[in-house]
Amino acid sequence: MGRTATILHADLDAFYASVEQLLNPSLRGKPIAVGGGVVLAASYEAKAYGVRGGMPGRRARELCPQLIFVGGNFQEYQRLGDAAIAILGDYTPLVERISIDEAFADVAGCTHLFGSPADIAATIRHRVRTELGLRISVGVARTKHLAKIASQVAKPDGMVLVDPKTELEFLHDLPVELMWGVGPVTKAKLTERGILTIGQLANTPGHSIERLLGTAVGEKLSALAWNRDPREIRTQHRARSAGAQSALGRKPAVESVFKPALLHLADRVASRLRAKSLAGNTVTVRVRFADMRAVTRSTTLDAPISATMMLAEIAEELVRVALADHPQEQTITLLAISVSQLRKQPDIQLDLPLGLPDEKRRPGAKKGIARWTADRAIDTIRDRFGRDAVGYAATALDGPRAVPDGFRELAEKEL
């Protein structure tokens, strides 16, 4: 861990909503939300009314009657997110992307070329605004955790440099929910104990925090509260999983709803895996019900897969199991698919047709080879003519808006 503030955390402001306002100037200055049944993202104008990501659409409209919902343009989100992260790469090779719209960068080795860390942060912010038309907030600090907190304090459209000499004074006055790893559940537990600020957490005996939150989480948060964070920038690390999710609103838990939605998600996930020559052994689905409670089901296969239809069929089976285990649930609001235990796509070897129960799940079976060939043909067409040039009939027949295109990457690192 360095002694000077050279780590940047750059985070695009209200990214999805800002992109929608960029693409459609008539939405600028207005409260908008990306999504429908569930808010995926909200503009700052909507946030002023209390609208937040993950909120049911009905509640969002109650808070902000003039709220405008937009369906989302995820190809543009990916393109603009990539472009913003690429600007960081113009100043240092030490860039660690952690999501579609945020990344860390260590500029310790390039200040002689581009100026101080604060100068570099200011230049990045200017370029993102002028070249992409988006706002980005940057935190500059000695550790990754503190840089991320500083970027949150800087929002919207600002830059905060934390002086190493006064970093604890800066950190300890902030609300505890700004800490990396403190979500709503953890915040509620801390609030019950009267712990509202990071300073209060830092001065609470470690054994008390560990009893409250568990040993691992307690030790981690106690260390971060004192800005003890030895993690370095990791420019390359192996993707642990890849996934996508779609907010459906409030839809009946029937095949005509979940089957096309799962095919849509499987197409997104599998095509990304194939683009990176990856395949995975474990398939997991998540189903969220009307009361926002979610359940997951997973299965681990003998052979890794990356075929769209194979992934979709396995996901369907898992969703059926989840619904059968909860027969009282008649409404679903979200579906998600993820593939884990990723590895480089092996060479596909033909399997003998032995009539085994799991044969349809084996990439080397006759049906698996046919599906792999079809996927490759679709990938080739999309690479040349764009993703919308060809799709799968089960989703295309229902129209372009039948399945919401609300997804986000669940991978540890962007694929």
Keywords:
Alpha-Beta Plaits, 12 strands, 5-stranded mixed sheet, 3 domains, about 425 residues, alpha+beta, single chain, disordered C terminus, Dna Ligase, domain 1, globular, DNA polymerase, domain 1, about 20% strand, 4-stranded antiparallel sheet
Structural summary, described in words:
The structure is a single chain. This protein is α+β, with helices and mostly antiparallel strands and 415 residues long. It folds into three domains: 1-162, Alpha-Beta Plaits; 165-237, DNA polymerase, domain 1, CATH 1.10.150.20; 241-411, Dna Ligase, domain 1 (2-Layer Sandwich). The chain has 16 helices and twelve strands. Helix 4 runs antiparallel to helix 6 (117-132). The chain is globular and about 60 Å long. The two termini are 28 Å apart. Mean pLDDT is 84; it is low at 348-354 and 393-415. Its main location: cytoplasm. InterPro entries: DNA/RNA_pol_sf (IPR043502), DNA_pol_Y-fam_lit_finger_sf (IPR036775), DNA_pol_Y-fam_little_finger (IPR017961), DNA_polymerase-Y (IPR050116), DNApol_IV (IPR022880), Rev_trsase/Diguanyl_cyclase (IPR043128), UmuC (IPR001126). Its EC number is 2.7.7.7.
